[in-house]
Automatic annotation (TrEMBL):
Keywords: Lyase
Lineage: Bacteria, Pseudomonadati, Pseudomonadota, Alphaproteobacteria, Hyphomicrobiales
GO cellular component, one term: cytoplasm
Keyword presence, Repeat: no
Name of the protein: Aldoketomutase
Gene Ontology MF annotations: lactoylglutathione lyase activity
InterPro entries: Glyas_Bleomycin-R_OHBP_Dase, Glyas_Fos-R_dOase_dom, VOC_core
Residue intervals of the VOC domain: 3-126
PANTHER family tied to this protein: LACTOYLGLUTATHIONE LYASE
Source species of the chain: Rhizobium metallidurans
One record GO biological process: methylglyoxal catabolic process to D-lactate via S-lactoyl-glutathione
């Protein structure tokens, strides 16, 4: 069986992105591999073996066009309302806390937050299939 190990996004500013993902999701640099024209930074935490790979293309100054094909990354947390409050108080402007129901039952409680490069990240309450 295949095992999902990471997802990659392109970012303009390594320090800004590492700070954002550390502050918001507790991710830390697990590895950093520097090449002549680009750098790969792998972020992770103790919750999962899955990593976020940040790719920084050296010399790039224009923001990336995310187009209309990018969906989102998703993370789950124990208390989504607590995280929403924490991020709001930190001035990081999370989207509204949303409840999604199906057949009269809670399917998901979540909000989205946008990283410095415009990527959307869904933050879900650990519940049901979103453990």
């Amino acid at each position: 069986m295949a095992k999902m190990i990471h997802s990659m996004i392109r970012v303009l500013d390594e320090a800004r992105s590492v700070e954002f993902y550390g502050k918001v999701f507790g991710l830390e640099v697990a590895d950093r591999i520097d090449f002549d024209t680009f750098t790969l930074i792998y972020l992770s935490n103790s919750e999962t073996g899955f990593e976020l790979e940040l790719t920084v293309n050296k010399g790039r100054v224009e923001p990336y066009n995310l187009g209309d094909g990018y969906g989102h990354l998703a993370v789950s947390v124990d208390e989504v309302a607590v995280e929403h409050k924490r991020l709001t108080e930190a001035g990081l402007n999370p989207g509204k806390l949303t409840e999604l129901n199906r057949d009269g039952k809670l399917l998901a409680l979540f909000f989205f937050i946008t990283d410095p490069d415009g990527y959307k990240i869904e933050v879900l309450q650990r519940h049901g299939r979103y453990l």
